[in-house]
Design a protein that fits this description.
Distance between the termini: 42 Å
Shape: globular
Strand content: under 5%
Number of helices: 10
Structural class: mainly alpha
Order of helices and strands: HHHHHHHHHH
Largest sheet: none
């Protein structure tokens, strides 16, 4: 969890918040692959198809968002690569966190997760804070991001993860691309290509497919 806290800010120096949110919607597809590795069990054809759809959407967003012109979408290959690495870290972490949440509870687990993330970030964070210009607006943004966007969100996410499981717990990622695009365009005047919007739609479809119960699971629940 600590590494994505570092990767996302670095990536967003060259990638717009809208594109970042679009790519973040591909987390369920990556989680399916990591869950298959952790469980040592190959995913079903349905899950494989969902992963392919998700990665197709990620590819469309990434390729269409790589900066080619000055007035084009704000993204580059390095930033996109860092975001994908961060998603891989998250997908790995949720597979580790799910059984721990059921054993220790969401609040206790996420508290120690964030403590660990802080310790990992201290060697880079402290020197950066010394060199930074401190303003009330910056501290306010950090407080909202830390207390609500990370603290409260992680606790709620931990509860969902324990109740719904690793893959279906990713359902919140349906809304991330949509909210990111709306906020990025409305408040930051960001420009996105139509191909990126198409890719976002494909990612949301892939995320929906990964979060649906397996056809065999549905049949098992309804059978006597």
């Amino acid at each position: 969890m600590g590494l994505p806290f570092l990767l996302f800010p670095i990536a967003e120096r060259t990638v717009s918040s809208a594109v970042t949110g679009m790519l973040n919607g591909g987390l369920p597809a990556i989680s399916v692959l990591m869950t298959a590795i952790f469980m040592r069990r190959a995913p079903s054809r349905f899950r494989v198809m969902a992963v392919l759809v998700g990665f197709a959407g990620i590819a469309i967003i990434s390729l269409s968002s790589i900066r080619a012109e000055d007035d084009g979408p704000t993204a580059d290959a390095k930033g996109v690569s860092l975001l994908l690495l961060a998603l891989l870290c998250y997908a790995t972490a949720v597979n580790i966190a799910a059984p721990l949440q059921r054993k220790y509870g969401s609040l206790r687990l996420m508290f120690w997760v964030e403590v660990g993330a802080v310790l990992w970030a201290l060697p880079l964070g402290v020197p950066a804070m010394i060199r930074s210009d401190h303003t009330w607006s910056a501290w306010g943004a950090i407080f909202v991001l830390g207390a609500i966007g990370t603290g409260v969100a992680f606790v709620v996410y931990g509860v969902l993860l324990g109740r719904a499981g690793t893959v279906r717990g990713m359902i919140g990622n349906f809304f991330t691309p949509i909210v990111s695009v709306l906020l990025g365009v409305s408040f930051r005047n960001e420009h996105i290509s139509w191909w990126a919007v198409v890719g976002m739609a494909v990612v949301v479809v892939g995320a929906g497919m990964t979060s649906r119960p397996e056809p065999t699971e549905s049949g098992a629940r309804t059978s006597p």
